[in-house]
Task: structure prediction
Amino acid sequence: MQQRPTPLRVPSSALYFTVELEGREPHHFRIPMHATCASLVTQWARATKEIGLSSGLPDLWAAAVSTKITGLILGTCWHHRTKGLESRRDSFAPTESGALEYGNAVCEELSEAGYTDNDLGELGGPVLVRMSSALAPSQEEVAATVAGFPGR
Result:
C-alpha cells in the first residue's frame, strides 16, 4: 500500500460511498460500470454456490476462495483518498483465475498493511451490497416494463 502524494477527490455522486472501519480513516469506494458489477457479483455468487454445494471441500479452501473474491471486489472498487493499492489488475491475466490472483494480491497487500480478515469482511460486505443494488432496476424501469405487458 502506498501513500498518495495528493489525496483523491471523492465526488458527490451515487457512485462513490464511504465505509467506516473502527480505528481507521474512512474508506472510499467507487461502484464500477454496470458490466463490471455484473461480472463481480456473478463470480461471487458462483463461488458462494460452489462452496455451499461442495460439502467435501475443506473449509480452508472455501475461506481462500471467499477471501480472493473479497480482494477482487475491494481492489476493483478501491478509491481511498490517501492510500493507493500497489496491486494492479492489469498485472494479472484477463481471465477468471487471473482475477482471483489479483484478489489474492489485494488481500495480501491489505494484510501487510495491518488489515485483519474481519476488516476485509467489514469492508467487502457493504461494497458487495452496493454493487448488487447498482444492478437492480429502478422503480421507473420496473413501472415501464409492467406498463408494457398486455392487459395493463
